[in-house]
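Quality-control log, excerpt.
Job 1 of 2 completed; input and output follow.
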Amino acid sequence: MKRKLEDILRSYDPYLLVALFLLCLIGLLGIYSATYRGGPSPLFIKQSLYFVAGLLVIFIFSRINFRTIYDTAPAIYFLNLFLLILVPILGKTVYGAKRWIDLGPVSIQPSEFMKFSLLLFALYTLSYMKKLISKEGLILLMAFSMPAVLTLKQPDLGTAVIYGVIVILLLFLKGLSLRYFIIAGILLIFMSPIFWHFLKDYQKARILAVLDPYQDYHGSGYQLIQSVIAIGSGGFLGKGFLQGTQAHLLFLPEKHTDFIFSVIAEELGFIAGFLLLASLLVIFYRLVYHAIDNPHPTERLYLGAFAGLWLFQTGVNLLMTMGLTPVVGVPLPFVSYGGSSILTFSLFMGVAFSIIRENKNRPIRFEHG
C-alpha cells in the first residue's frame, strides 16, 4: 500500500504540488481573516469544503487519460453553453449582476466554468484547422463569440476578456503568423472609441480611476485607494493575523474575493505576499517547463495555453489590488473566495497533472493535431 502511494506521488510534479498546497493554505488564512466575525464564518467553512472538492477534482481528472477528456470537449462545451443560456432565465442577481444559478446551498457561475470548456473546445477545433480562414476558423470564432456575448450581458467584462485571451493564446502557440496579431492590435486601437461608447458608465469610471483614483475618492477610486493603503501598511511582517484595520474596520470592499491579496499583505506582510507570489510563479514556470518538455502538439498547446491564462489572470488580479489596472472582478486562482473559480482551476490543474503523469509514464501517446 505504501509503495503504491509512493508510485502515485512520484508520477506527479512535486514542485507543482507544494506550490499549490502553499497557495491554498495562504488563501484559506486570508479568507478566514477577511470573513472573521468572532469565529470561523460560514463563508470560510464553505471555502474549506470547496478546497476539498477541488483537490478531489484534481485527483480524479489527473487519473483520467487526456485523450478521453479531449474527445469529450464538444460535449463539455455545449453543456456549459446551455448553462450560460439558462443564467438570464434562472439566474440570481447579486449587486446588479446576474451571473449565478442557485442550487440551494451553493450557487454555480457557468461563466467561470466556460474558461475550461472554451480552452478545451478551441484546442479540439484547432487540431482540425489548416488555415485561419476556413470552416474550422468560423467555428472557433462562434465558439468564442457566443459565451462572450452572454457573459457581457450579465455583465462581466473581465471574464469575457479572458475568453478572448484564451483563443489568442492558442492561436499564438499554434504558430499563427505574427502579422495577424499586429493587424488585430492596430484594428483594436482604431476601434477603441467604438468599444468605449458601448461600455457601461461604471466600467468607464473604473478605467478612468486607474489614471487618478483620487478624482472620485468616494466612488470608482475608493476600492483602489483602500487596497493600496492595505498593502502598503502591511510592511515586512504585517500587522498581525486578524489585526488588519482596512479589512476588519470595513474600509476595504470585496475583501474576500477580488481584494483578498490586500488582506493577506496587510496582515501577514511582505513575507506572505512574497510566498504567495512565488507559489503563483512556480506553478507558471512548471507548466511552461512541462509544455516545452512534452513532444505531443495537442498536450503542449494545452499546457502552454493554461500557463498563459494562469499568468494573465493572476497578473490582472494582483495589479488590480495595487491600483495599476481597472477593477474587473477577476479572482485570484485558489486564493479568492468562490467555489466556481476553485473548481474551474481544479479542472485545469487536474488535466495538466494528467498530461504530466502520462508524459512521465508513457513514452508514446496519442497524436492529434
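Job 2 of 2 completed; input and output follow.
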Amino acid sequence: MRYQFKFRPYQRKFLRSLTTNHGKWDIREGIILRLTDESGKLGWGEIAPISWFGSETLEKALDFCRQLPKEITDEIIFSIPDELPACQFGFESAWEWRSGGAGEQGSRGAEEKNLNLSSALHSLPYSGLLPSGEAALNQWEKLWQQGYRTFKWKIAVDAIADELEIFESLIHTLPASTKLRLDANGGLSYEEANLWLRTCDNLKANAEVPIEIEFIEQPLPVEQFQQMLELSMSYETAIALDESVATLGQLAGCYQQGWRGIFVIKPGIVGSPSRLRKFCHQYEVDTVFSSVFETAIARLAALKLAAELSRNNRAIGFGIDHFFEQEDTWLQSLCNSL
C-alpha cells in the first residue's frame, strides 16, 4: 500500500529541568508524522530520539524524513535501518494506528482486541518520577494524592553521602506499601553500586521500614555489563538494565550474554514494535515499560505495547505528566498544521 507522508518537528519545554547523571534536560524535541492511506485513513506517529541514551540524533531523524518522497510504501516503513530506532518506532506506530492494531484483521477481531486493550490500559499501574535531590521529599505527596504507589528517584546526581542521607529521610517519610525505584543512569562506580545495594539489602531486613525497594536501575555504565551481572547475583535487591538495553540489538545482546533480570524498555527508542513483540513473546522477559517524555501520540503506541507485553504486574514508567504544561491544545494545533 502507498501512503501520503508529512512530518513536522516540535520543541516542548520542561516545566523544570530534568536532572540525571547525563546532565540537565530543558527542552524535549521530536517529530510528529502523519500517514494517509489510499482510502483516506490517517495514521499518526512520533519520532522522539534521545541520542545520549542510545538512539539516533534528532538531526539524523530529520535528515531521514527530509529525504523521503511525499508518497511512501510498506516496504520503506519496514526497511528503516537499525541505526534509526526512534524512526522505526515512529513510522511503524503510524502504520499500526492507521490499520487499527498490530496488523490487518477482521472487524470483529479488531473490536474484541480493542476492548481487551482498553481494559488492559486502564488496569496498568503507573510509577511516578520524583525530582532528584531533596526536592523529592516535597513532591512525593502530591503524586501519592494522584494515585501513584510506585516512585522512581534519580541517584548518582549529587555526592553519594548526601544522597544516602536524603534516601534515609525519604524511606522514613513514604507511606507503608510504597515501592521505590532508584535510577542511577549508569552513574555509579563499582564501589558506590555495592554501597547502594548493601544499603537496600539492609533495608529489606529491617522490619521497621515497610516500603519496598523494587530495584536499582542501571547502576553502572553500559560497558560494565559483566560487573552488573555479577552484582545481580550477589545481592537480594534486584537490578534493572536501562541504558544497556536502549535498542532491540542491545536487548537481544544482553539476553544472549545471560541477563535474566529486569529489562527497562523505552518503546519510543527501542526500535520496531513488531520485532519487540516477537522478542518479548519468544523469551518471556521481565519488563518495565518506560517513557521517553514523548507526546500523547507516541505515548499511546507505547502504552499499547506495555499493555500487551508487560509481565509480573510491574508499574510502568509513564508518570511524567507533571514535567510539562497540559499538551492537548498545543498538540492538536501541531497536528492540524500537517
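Post-run check on job 2. Residues 102-115 have pLDDT under 50 and may be disordered.
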